[in-house]
Every structure is written in structure tokens, then in C-alpha cells.
Design goal:
This protein is mainly beta. It folds into 2 domains: 25-57; 58-414, Porin (Beta Barrel), CATH 2.40.160.10. Helix content is 14%, strand content 48%. It starts with a helix and ends with a strand.
Length: 415
């Protein structure tokens, strides 16, 4: 190899070596750019998949958050307010079996008690529709085609709209609700999902003195008066006082969502304080010109302990039939103490005792009174999941000299 050839090879080698780093740098830059583009394509693809899934189903699957409640509603009834999708579907259900023995004839009952879907829709973030539809006692059985009443009407349970309203959200101080809504009285009327109270059956105070589930049509304003101090004020259709009498007190006078002619006007006011950790305490009152109902209520939870209860009084001022010796006053209250003996990742197991006394005929038109109904209930709840509960309780009830004991087992869930 001559000197000239060697020089040319040397120059070529120097040229290659000088170009190589630039080629390598350009290649690495292009590879990095391609990686970024691939990552971006993957993200866009996942977004399209999510959007397509939402379009197919109509909503995203929002789970129940047991820690959240909007305007005092149960966690499942509050889902639409926290949903990332316009359409929200939730609900609850419960069924039970019971065996009663004592001075009255023995009785066993098996009941697919309630199945209740919640359907909500956000027109905007500030205009929200919320609905509750109840199927009770398995629904309504059609007429049997024979002569008599069964040929004309169904029998069994009922299907009813328990609430159907529009919320117009403004700010934390005031919001507006129009439509058919729950009356904001006591603890259980607004929060009647089975995971929210320990007994198989709702307390008698919450069934008769405050006739849960109590719902009427009208308007409501609600919000916060100050931090941790909330209020509600509603003007709604009133109880039908011509139907308020006997051991059921005002329960039969609920208008509900059925068609009514010339309903009277009623007002309800409520205030609640939640300034201490784990504590809710408040009062509410209802008045329709004839019937008044007032209650105080409290609910406290801390480290597995829960104590809750309600005390309510009710009275009638007009339209009392002295000949029929109708009731003019009713009273009731209960206190429930529960402690979670498990509280682990495998579930929770509150055991409880509840004492209740109520009298829907505490005072009659002639000044006399019927016996109160006193009940001690002991039992346990097992939560394999915070949205699923299995309940067992034993209720020992006395009314005067009459005693009845009821063993009950139930299952309940929210979704």
C-alpha cells in the first residue's frame, strides 16, 4: 500500500469517526421521539376505550362511598351527586324471616321486604334529578280473574315513588329542591337503607310517631347556616288528618306520591350540628295546622362504638272525634348502643342492644291513655363488605300484660 493510498484511508476513517457520533445522536433522538409518540397513542387508545364503554352503558360504574352523604341522605341515595357520569344507578334491598311467640298466637313470616332502585341524572353539575322507586313485599299480585275484590285489584305489596325531585345547587349556604321528597324528620326517614340501622325492623317510633318512610310533594331550601351547622326548610303537602287515628296514629295519613285532591299545606324545619368528630345532633319539627310532630335526634360513632336514638312527640289540635275517642297525643323514643367486636379487613361485627318505648295513643279525646309498647332488642350485624349486612336480633316486647318475643334474621345491601 503506497503512501497516497494510506493517506486517503486515513482521511476516510477520520471522516467516518467524526460523523458517527452525530448519526448516533440523531438516531437516539428519533428513537426517543418514537417512544413518546407510541406512549401518546396508547393513552389516546385507552381514552377511546373508556369513552366507548361509557357510550355503550350510558354511565360509568360509580361505587357507593359509605362516608359520603348529600343533604342527609343515605350513601346509596347520594350517589348521583358524586358520580362522574350524568347517569347514576344505585339502590338497596332487604328481606327477612321471623318467628314470633308469646301471648299472641305464634306467627312465622318470610318476606322479600323491599327492593329499591335509585336512578339519578345530572342535567348539569348544578341541576340534578334524583329518584327512588320502591317495590315492597315482592311487588303487587295481579287479580285472579274470579269474582269479588281480587278480580278488580291486585294484592300483596306495593310499587311506589318515594322521591322524585330536582335539586338546583347554588352554594353551601342555600340550595333548592322541587318535586316529591322525603320529609326531613328524625334519623331514619332520610337514611332508611338497611346498612344504616342495626335492627331488622325499623323502630316503632320511626314507623308510627314519625311515619317512615314519609314523603310528600313541595319545595325545600337547604344548606349551612355556619360551618358544621346545617338546616332544611320545606313547604309540602300535608298529612290527611281524617285518616290519623288508632294504634297507627298518623301513619295512614301520609299522602305519598299518589294522586290527591285539594291537599293541605305543611311546613317542616330541621337543624343539625356536626362540629364534633363522629357526632350528629339535631332537632326537627312539622306542622300542618292540625298535626304537629317534633323530635330530637343524635348519632355518635367513635372507635367501634356507636350510640344513636330519637325522641319524638306528636299531637292533634282539631278534628278530633270525641265520640270515637280518637287519639290526640302520641310519643315515642329509642336508644341504640352498638360496639364492633371485629372491625378488621375481613369485615365488621357490631353487637347491639336497643331500648324503645312508644305510644301512638298516649292521650285520647276523653283524657285517658292506652298502654305504651316497650321493647328491648338484642342482636348482631355482620358486614362481610361495607355495603352488605346480615342481621340477627331478638326483640322482647311488652304492651300492658301482653308479651311477645320475636326472633328475626335478615339480609340487606346497598349498591
Amino acid at each position: 500500500m503506497n503512501k497516497k493510498t494510506t493517506t486517503k484511508l486515513s482521511l476516510a476513517l477520520i471522516t467516518v469517526l467524526s460523523i458517527a457520533p452525530h448519526v448516533s445522536a440523531d438516531a437516539n433522538s428519533e428513537i426517543d421521539m418514537l417512544k413518546k409518540e407510541i406512549q401518546s397513542l396508547k393513552e389516546n387508545q385507552q381514552t377511546l376505550i373508556d369513552e366507548t364503554s361509557s357510550l355503550k352503558t350510558g354511565f360509568e360504574y360509580t361505587t357507593v362511598d359509605a362516608t359520603k352523604s348529600h343533604s342527609g341522605l343515605g350513601s346509596a341515595a347520594s350517589k348521583v351527586y358524586y358520580s362522574s357520569s350524568p347517569l347514576s344507578i344505585g339502590g338497596y334491598g332487604e328481606m327477612y324471616i321471623s318467628s314470633q311467640s308469646g301471648d299472641n298466637p305464634d306467627k312465622r313470616t318470610l318476606d322479600v321486604y323491599r327492593f329499591v332502585p335509585y336512578i339519578g341524572y345530572k342535567f348539569t353539575d348544578d341541576i340534578i334529578l334524583n329518584t327512588e322507586i320502591e317495590f315492597e313485599h315482592g311487588g303487587v299480585k295481579a287479580g285472579n280473574g274470579k269474582s269479588g275484590a281480587d278480580a278488580k285489584a291486585g294484592k300483596g305489596g306495593e310499587v311506589i315513588i318515594e322521591f322524585m325531585y330536582l335539586d338546583f345547587l347554588q352554594n353551601k349556604n342555600y340550595n333548592f329542591r322541587l318535586g316529591h321528597m322525603l320529609i326531613p324528620m328524625g334519623l331514619i326517614n332520610q337514611r332508611h337503607e338497611p346498612t344504616l340501622f342495626t335492627t331488622v325492623q325499623r323502630p316503632g317510633t320511626s314507623k308510627y310517631i314519625i311515619p317512615t318512610t314519609w314523603h310528600e310533594s313541595g319545595a325545600m331550601v337547604y344548606g349551612e347556616l355556619a360551618d358544621d351547622l346545617s338546616y332544611k326548610f320545606s313547604a309540602t303537602s300535608a298529612l290527611d288528618t281524617s285518616l290519623t287515628n288508632g294504634k297507627k296514629w298518623i301513619r295512614s295519613g301520609r299522602g305519598g306520591s299518589f294522586k290527591r285532591t285539594d291537599p293541605a299545606l305543611a311546613f317542616t324545619a330541621r337543624i343539625d350540628y356536626t362540629g364534633l368528630n363522629g357526632l350528629l345532633i339535631g332537632a326537627s319539627t312539622y306542622y300542618d295546622g292540625d298535626v304537629s310532630v317534633t323530635d330530637i335526634h343524635g348519632d355518635y360513632s367513635n372507635s367501634g362504638l356507636r350510640v344513636y336514638g330519637t325522641y319524638a312527640v306528636a299531637s292533634r289540635s282539631d278534628d278530633v272525634n270525641p265520640t270515637a275517642n280518637e287519639a290526640t297525643n302520641a310519643v315515642g323514643g329509642y336508644l341504640n348502643i352498638a360496639y364492633d367486636v371485629l372491625s378488621s379487613s375481613k369485615g365488621s361485627l357490631p353487637i347491639f342492644i336497643q331500648y324503645e318505648t312508644y305510644n301512638p295513643e298516649d292521650e285520647l279525646a276523653d283524657g285517658s291513655s292506652k298502654d305504651s309498647i316497650d321493647t328491648i332488642t338484642i342482636g348482631a350485624n355482620y358486614f362481610p363488605h361495607e355495603q352488605v349486612v346480615l342481621k340477627l336480633d331478638y326483640a322482647m316486647q311488652e304492651k300492658g300484660d301482653v308479651e311477645d318475643n320475636t326472633l328475626s334474621l335478615s339480609l340487606g345491601f346497598v349498591f
